[in-house]
Design the sequence.
């Protein structure tokens, strides 16, 4: 039944989300995908029912985007999204500015359940909770477990904390802004046709991966980052990119989940980006040198004091009256430039690591693998997403180009280090 | 489970070429054509669907606005018991504009048919506009030959271009446009001079013709490069 305006809840977009609706285009969908691969084929009817059951718990997911005079906002949707069989390329354009579209879709294909969700709603950590809830509800309806969602997921959905904008909670106006970044090296590959997005996933045994990273006295994220840096640097050296303009520093955007540093149960965006950078003009780097640099980089920056500068900068920009009072249509015109100029132009690529995902025991028995696909981006043609579950680390490259040099370099390096890899691709 | 014999990675059974090293995977167990093994569906592209929906919205809006304007003009005419020549001309132009828009928005896939219909609409519009004063004059002497020659030149150029299968479009499309335009301009001046002076007098069109052809030749030479001798000579003449 349709509710009155008064009865429909509304939510301000969180600090990070405010940017995304303005930059959405056919290529830059801002949509990322999380998939769970089950041991048996998905029952679409049960999946729809499972989604219907959990939506009341995720009030700020089941929304539609509305236009305010100065900002977009989310309003509770009075309709239910329909589960669809996968038919398009992953992470494709989601027209959630339209009236009857939520900022996420739930799709299935054979034994895979996927959620594709706009970054304007949540980040990877929030999306993982949403996926877990769908899986819990699905397994309960299929009779695979008798425990309810609240027993399986240790989250108090009634608390307002799940909807909070944690950036504002930890904002301190006295903290100065971090130093500005320099323009980064960009891969000058030709673009795919509009509407096409290529994925290459490497599946690696987690225990062997962790052992290998440990042999270099580092963590898996830093190890992957080092291999990725080396792959890009190798490409630059092989292609003999000598022009100074093109041989800028290689900078990787690494989103950091702030929930580990600043306690919060929010299911909305709560991350900032750290940007380790290596300049190929300074000379050749050995793998050990890259690892040492990354270790030191994160050692200096991955702490509350340093990160607070980023929170401060982001919130300061949002609460500035000069920016607040700019009408939304003008913001929409300027935001893509701001995103490109202050964001993507300063990164060569990005790595999102969701870390180790743990499912409650009754669910884990029915889920073989979990994958993450990064959102397509025109500024950073290739991006990487990774997570580990069930002793399988899935590293997925999302690419808006047909050139596979970087992915090839990356996986070939891991293979040469003795890691067994299974490659899956949608091309 | 299939493995790439060259780089050693594991791949899905249906994969024919290694995604890492491009090595052709031998189909030992005949599994490569089994679509059941595919992890992804044959993906559709969401973009054309979006473009089509936007195109339809735009065309329907313009069509309805055009139709409403025609009806309003006709209603005013009926109310006043006479439709002025200005109103008649506007109705003809609006109708043609809707047809032009329909053709430009690509609802008909064949370019040849689109161009022929474009030409036919132009001829019909000009004849009707000319007939408003109950006599047909300029539409037959000026409009008809110019439109027909324009359509013919475009069709021939398009035919030659598609047959030639050029790969570098940004060089060859301007070349073909320039050649076509230079011939078309000659014809325009020929038609005008034949009607005014009853004889063929070509002046300004020859200047345009030479300039456009020169530009085409320059583009073509950029593509095909100058012969070594000419290059050497140029180097000596323009050395700094």
Sequence:
């Amino acid at each position: 039944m349709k509710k009155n305006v008064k009865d429909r809840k509304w939510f301000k977009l969180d600090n990070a989300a405010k940017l995304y609706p303005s930059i959405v285009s056919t290529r830059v969908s801002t949509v990322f995908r999380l998939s769970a691969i089950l041991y048996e084929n998905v029952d679409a009817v049960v999946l729809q029912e499972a989604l219907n059951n959990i939506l009341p718990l995720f009030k700020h997911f089941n929304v539609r985007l509305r236009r305010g005079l100065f900002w977009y906002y989310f309003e509770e949707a009075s309709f239910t999204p329909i589960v669809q069989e996968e038919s398009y390329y992953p992470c494709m354009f989601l027209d959630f500015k339209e009236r009857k579209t939520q900022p996420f879709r739930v799709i299935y294909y054979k034994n895979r359940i996927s959620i594709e969700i706009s970054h304007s709603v949540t980040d990877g950590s929030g999306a993982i909770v949403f996926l877990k809830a769908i899986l819990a509800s699905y397994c309960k309806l299929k009779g695979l477990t008798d425990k309810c969602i609240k027993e399986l997921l240790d989250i108090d959905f009634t608390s307002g904390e799940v909807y909070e904008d944690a950036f504002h909670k930890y904002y301190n106006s006295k903290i100065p802004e971090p130093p500005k970044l320099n323009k980064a090296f960009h891969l000058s590959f030709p673009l795919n046709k509009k509407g096409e997005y290529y994925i290459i996933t490497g599946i690696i045994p987690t225990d062997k991966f962790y052992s290998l990273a440990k042999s270099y006295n580092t963590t898996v994220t830093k190890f992957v980052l080092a291999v990725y840096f080396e792959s890009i640097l190798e490409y630059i050296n092989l292609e003999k990119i000598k022009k100074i303009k093109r041989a800028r520093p290689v900078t990787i955007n690494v989103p950091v989940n702030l929930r580990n540093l600043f306690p919060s149960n929010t299911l909305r965006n709560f991350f900032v980006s750290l940007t380790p950078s290596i300049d190929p003009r300074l000379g050749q780097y050995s793998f050990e040198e890259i690892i040492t640099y990354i270790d030191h980089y994160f050692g200096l920056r991955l702490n509350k004091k340093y990160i607070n500068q980023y929170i401060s900068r982001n919130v300061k920009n949002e609460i500035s009256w000069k920016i607040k009072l700019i009408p939304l249509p003008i913001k929409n015109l300027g935001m893509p430039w701001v995103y490109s100029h202050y964001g993507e132009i300063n990164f060569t690529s990005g790595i999102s690591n969701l870390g180790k995902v743990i499912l409650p025991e009754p669910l884990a028995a029915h889920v073989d693998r979990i994958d993450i696909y990064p959102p397509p981006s025109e500024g950073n043609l290739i991006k990487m997403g990774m997570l580990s579950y069930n002793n399988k680390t899935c590293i997925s490259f999302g690419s808006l180009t047909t050139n596979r040099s970087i992915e090839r370099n990356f996986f070939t390096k891991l293979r040469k280090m003795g890691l067994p890899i299974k490659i899956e691709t949608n091309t | 489970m299939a493995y790439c014999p060259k780089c050693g990675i594991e791949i899905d059974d249906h994969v024919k070429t290694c995604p890492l090293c491009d090595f052709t995977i031998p189909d030992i167990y005949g599994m490569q054509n089994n679509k059941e093994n595919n992890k992804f569906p044959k993906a559709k592209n969401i973009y054309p669907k979006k473009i089509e929906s936007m195109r339809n919205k735009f065309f329907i809006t313009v069509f309805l606005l055009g139709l409403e304007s025609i009806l309003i003009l006709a209603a005013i005419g009926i109310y006043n018991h006479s439709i002025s020549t200005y109103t008649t001309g506007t109705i003809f132009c609006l109708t043609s504009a809707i047809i032009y828009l329909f053709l430009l928005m690509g609802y008909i896939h064949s370019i040849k048919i689109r161009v022929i219909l474009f030409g036919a609409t132009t001829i019909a519009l000009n004849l009707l506009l000319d007939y408003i004063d109950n006599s047909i004059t300029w539409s037959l002497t000026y409009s008809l030959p110019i439109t027909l020659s324009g359509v013919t030149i475009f069709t021939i150029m398009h035919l030659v271009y598609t047959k030639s299968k050029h790969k570098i479009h940004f060089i060859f499309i301007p070349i073909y446009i320039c050649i076509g335009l230079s011939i078309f301009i000659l014809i325009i001046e020929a038609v005008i001079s034949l009607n005014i002076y009853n004889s063929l007098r070509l002046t300004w069109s020859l200047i345009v013709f030479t300039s456009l052809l020169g530009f085409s030749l320059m583009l073509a030479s950029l593509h095909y490069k100058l012969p070594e001798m000419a290059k050497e000579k140029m180097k000596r003449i323009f050395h700094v």
